[in-house]
Design brief:
Elements: H1 3-10, E1 16-17, H2 23-33, E2 37-42, E3 45-51, H3 52-60, H4 71-74, H5 88-98, E4 102-107, E5 110-116, H6 117-139
Parallel strand pairs: 1-2
Antiparallel strand pairs: 2-3, 4-5
Length: 141
């Protein structure tokens, strides 16, 4: 299964903010959309990712104010991305080695979606269910 297949099931909706927004504004959008990370896109270019983990470690634990801190101060600017043609094994490897939970999907340097560790795990479970069903069918014939 490929990233594109996950996006075709999940959808390609992407939420983004600007690096000049406050962290509080970013968290408000994340809460409203029920997402764990938000992309920072400016002039059509992916500039970074802000996750709940970034907030917890760089604002809460350092006793900073989310209403005063700007997104660019705590966002991850070195973004790990994937292509629509990448497979799930590659995504799992990236998520594991780079210790990220969200992968923006780029096509021709344009963000076309985002997948999370949850999306990848769900897809793998579906593949395993299909394999089990085929094996059961084969055995009972």
């Amino acid at each position: 299964m490929t990233v594109n297949q996950i996006l075709s099931t999940k959808g390609k909706e992407v939420y983004s903010i600007l690096s000049t927004n406050t962290v509080y504004e970013a968290l408000t959008v994340m809460s409203e959309k029920n997402i764990g990370a938000i992309l920072i896109i400016e002039d059509g270019v992916l500039k970074g990712v802000l996750s709940e983990r970034d907030y917890a470690r760089k604002i809460v634990l350092k006793a900073k104010s989310s209403k005063k801190a700007l997104v660019h101060e705590i966002m991850e600017a070195d973004v790990v991305t994937v292509k629509p043609s990448d497979n799930l094994d590659y995504c799992m490897e990236l998520m594991s080695t780079k210790r990220v939970r969200h992968l923006p999907v780029l096509e021709n340097d344009t963000v076309i979606g985002i997948i999370s560790i949850s999306d990848v795990v769900k897809a793998i479970i579906e593949i395993q269910k299909d394999t089990i069903q085929h094996l059961n069918s084969y055995i009972t014939q």
